[in-house]
Design goal:
The chain is of the alpha/beta class. Helix 11 packs across helix 13. Residues 363-669 form the Cobalamin-independent methionine synthase MetE C-terminal/archaeal domain.
């Protein structure tokens, strides 16, 4: 989902432009000094928006004085009293129009719509001679492009420019300013041509007068103007931006039928009725720039409400054509809240200045983009599960897994669905090397409001006649890999988690899942350092595991898995867990696990010491795996040995997984053949 900013404050976070202007006007600094400040401000604004992730970044919204005056300069519409002789308009003429000089007064200044911003009113008449006299829009586009930032050049639209003008002194008040449209459009065409040549792909025309009460003649001017510009803007995406109020129905009808226009921007803060117009009739295939972040105040956005509005507009415009935007230029709000060091923190938390609103716009765009349609999401996950099932069947694996494409982390996935858990955004802790984990926070009583894995396990089982394992994370592992509340004993929290997992086991069994794996990867990890405390820990840890699957039918097979541990000193506790099958990391442990069985410990349940290391991209040969299996059979009965990798395969690529599993199955079949022939 794309994001857009209508415009941005020019003064700088510490009024840098104000001081530079006043220094220049007082003769204390040069034009070069002023331009250096301006260049730095523009650069920082563009970079800020680019780094924030804004896609449609405006240019030509910076001004030394006023954007309407900039347009007057672009059109060369300089009143005669300033004795301008033509050519590119310089700072002297520009500031004389804005502020007057020793011999002539300034042009009139009036309020910009209903804001406290003032603009310089153009003075036009039948004798006004127009010429392309300021290349600022093109220069600033090129300036941004040199920084590696492609912007959307912004121009005051031709019709709004004329409607905001007044008849020059000596011109009849009845003079039709719109009659000058044919005189200024050739200059707009020149500007557009230069922007296209410079590489622009979008152009924004601000036509805010569309929100006013316009008569038929004025509305017709919009239609004729953009019909005239249509060939000039061919090849460009054209955005017409409106703001400050609802757009009347007739104006909306005119706007959405303009020739050559690609996109429409609306103020949806002060335009509740505009929302109704959009929902009832929006042109197919056009972009909707939705101004949901308020550009005229300093309050933080109600992101949930804005997201709800945007979601409703997705249906109207389509996901690819909806753009998150500000309601108007951010020049009407303060620059950056970070500079407010003396403001009360509580009040500060309610606020968002321009810099923060840029972040809000992009946050909304990201939130909207991250929300896949439920049907689309389910379809994508089913497709991946089907792929995983098919691969395993082709490899002739006996008991299958579904690959867990719907899951993130083996603890976080469950924590997100259990009550009593909270999650940080950046609470990363190093696990090994460059790998980090983000432990959840257990802050309250734990329970399971709804089934967590049943739908996907049932879906996977429906795709195969072979047994499909339901995959759960055990209570001890969830506890040991979390930041745990400290107002009650850890074992009490663990029992709560165990009861929640027990409900999930019961639901999986009821759904027809006959093999359920409850991973306890971190059971050994939680063992106290002092041996005198081992027995108590192992007692409640084993009890927690047994809670999860007590009461299942004898036909339901319970598996568990442990990794990266020395199990010899807790082997009797492992036996007490009473799992039907346990798979254990073995390949990196130099087969230390097997030594406990060589020493006489009897294990009657199924056991699967890992036959190859999944943490390495190396693909083991069939011979290597067969050799490992033979070493295991030297101490384990054939009827209890399971052949499996030593851990889950989610960290490996398909190009690594398939040949490794192919060799594992081949080795298993080879040993089976040898055992059968030896009988």
């Amino acid at each position: 989902m794309a994001s857009h900013i209508v415009g941005y404050p020019r003064m700088g976070p510490k009024r840098e432009l104000k001081f530079a202007l006043e220094s220049f006007w007082d003769g204390k600094s040069s034009a070069e000094d002023l331009e250096k400040v301006a260049t730095d401000l523009r650069s920082s604004i563009w970079k800020q928006m680019s780094e924030a992730g804004i896609k449609y970044i405006p240019s030509n919204t910076f001004s030394y004085y006023d954007q309407v005056l900039d347009t007057t300069a672009m059109l060369g519409a300089v009143p005669e009293r300033y004795s301008w002789t033509g050519g590119e308009i310089g700072l002297s003429t520009y500031f004389s129009m804005a502020r007057g000089n020793a011999t002539v007064p300034a042009m009139e200044m009036t309020k910009w719509f209903d804001t406290n911003y003032h603009f310089i009113v153009p003075e036009l008449g039948p004798r006004t001679k127009f010429s392309y006299a300021s290349h600022k829009a093109v220069s600033e586009y090129k300036e941004a492009k040199a920084l590696g930032i492609d912007t959307v050049p912004v121009l005051i639209g031709p019709v709004s420019y004329l409607l905001l003008s007044k008849p020059a002194k000596g011109v009849e008040k009845s003079f039709s300013l719109l009659s000058l449209l044919g005189s200024i459009l050739p200059i707009y065409k020149e500007v557009v041509a230069e922007l296209k040549a410079a590489g622009a792909s979008w152009i924004q025309f601000d036509e805010p007068t569309l929100v006013k009460d316009l008569d038929a003649h004025e509305l017709a001017a919009f239609s004729s103007a953009y019909a005239e510009l249509e060939s000039a803007v061919s090849g460009l995406n054209v955005l017409i931006e409106t703001y400050f109020a609802d757009i009347p129905a007739e104006s909306y009808k005119t706007l959405t039928s303009l020739s050559g226009v690609t996109a429409y921007g609306f103020d949806l803060i002060r335009g509740a009725k505009t929302l109704d117009l959009i929902r009832s009739s929006f042109p197919s295939g056009k972009y909707l720039f939705a101004g949901v972040v308020d550009g005229r105040n300093i309050w933080a956005d109600d992101l949930a409400a804005s997201l709800s509005t945007l979601q409703s507009l997705e249906v109207v415009a389509g996901k690819d054509k909806l753009v998150v935007s500000t309601s108007c230029s951010l020049m009407h709000t303060a620059v950056d809240l970070v500079n407010e060091t003396k403001l009360d923190d509580e009040i500060k938390s309610w606020l968002a200045f321009a810099a923060q609103k840029v972040v809000e716009v992009n946050a909304l765009a990201k939130a909207l983009a991250g929300q896949k349609d439920e049907e689309e999401y389910v379809s994508a996950i089913k497709e991946e599960i089907s792929k995983v099932v098919k691969i395993q069947e082709e490899l002739d694996i006996d008991v299958l897994v579904h690959g867990e494409p719907e899951r993130n982390d083996m603890v976080e996935y469950f924590g997100e669905q259990l009550s009593g858990f909270a999650f940080t955004a950046n609470g990363w802790v190093q696990s090994y090397g460059s790998r980090c984990v983000k432990p959840p926070i257990i802050y309250g009583d734990v329970s399971r409001p709804n089934p967590m894995t049943v739908f996907w396990s049932k879906t996977a089982q429906s795709m195969t006649s072979r047994p499909m394992k339901g995959m759960l994370t055990g209570p001890v592992t969830i506890l040991n890999w979390s930041f745990v509340r400290n107002d009650q004993p850890r074992f009490e929290t663990c029992y709560q988690i165990a009861l929640a997992i027990k409900k999930e086991v019961e639901d999986l069994e009821a759904a027809g899942i006959q093999v359920i794996q409850i991973d306890e990867a971190a059971l050994r990890e939680g063992l106290p350092l002092r041996k005198s405390e081992h027995a108590f820990y192992l007692d409640w840890a084993v009890h927690s595991f047994r809670i999860t699957n007590c009461g299942v039918q004898d036909t339901t097979q319970i598996h568990t898995h442990m990794c990266y541990s020395n199990f010899n000193d807790i082997i009797h506790s492992i036996i007490d867990m009473d799992a039907d099958v346990i798979t254990i990391e073995n390949s990196r442990s130099d087969e230390k696990l097997l030594s406990v069985f060589r020493e006489g410990v009897k294990y009657g349940a199924g056991i699967g010491p890992g036959v190859y290391d999944i943490h390495s991209p190396r693909i083991p040969t069939t011979e290597e795996i067969a050799d490992r299996i033979n070493k295991m059979l030297a101490v384990l009965d054939t009827n209890i040995l399971w052949v499996n990798p030593d851990c889950g395969l989610k960290t490996r690529k398909y190009t690594e997984v398939k040949p490794a599993l192919t060799n594992m199955v081949s080795a298993t079949k080879l040993i089976r053949t040898q055992l059968a022939s030896a009988k």
